[in-house]
Automatic annotation (TrEMBL):
The chain crosses the membrane at residues 5-24, 30-52, 64-87, 99-117. This is ATP synthase subunit I. Keywords: Membrane, Transmembrane, Transmembrane helix. It comes from Taibaiella soli.
Length: 125
């Protein structure tokens, strides 16, 4: 299972990149570089979260849950701070669909990471 997380997260990155590319072509008002930046940041945070949780799986179930919560909280805080900075810098030309898509990126990565990490925890018992 440990070998499945990295390809799954990279696969999600590629799928989201393709989706953003095609949406960006049909709706040029969306901020494509911001979406790609958010996608890349979530990829890196998912890898960091996996490394945090991977060490906790062997200790105890409580440590595993703490690791998953801390990884999710780290991603959420980085996402919220990044979106706040984006909103403050682009106050006049703010695209609300871009902001909602950034939260969608967070939700997609969190869902994939949580499902795969919970499977990994069940296998290591």
């Amino acid at each position: 299972m440990k070998k499945q997380l990295l390809p799954a997260v990279i696969g999600l990155f590629c799928v989201l990149t393709a989706i953003f590319y095609f949406i960006g072509k049909s709706k040029p008002e969306l901020n494509f570089p911001v979406l790609m930046g958010g996608n890349a940041i979530m990829l890196l945070l998912s890898i960091v979260g996996f490394l945090l949780v991977n060490n906790q799986v062997k200790n105890s179930p409580q440590a595993f849950v703490r690791g998953v919560y801390s990884a999710s909280l780290l991603k959420l805080m980085v996402c919220m701070i990044s979106i706040f900075i984006y909103v403050m810098l682009n106050r006049k030309n703010l695209q609300k669909p871009t902001v909602f898509m950034l939260f969608g990126i967070y939700a997609a990565y969190t869902f994939v990471e949580t499902v795969l990490l919970s499977k990994m925890a069940r296998e290591d018992k």
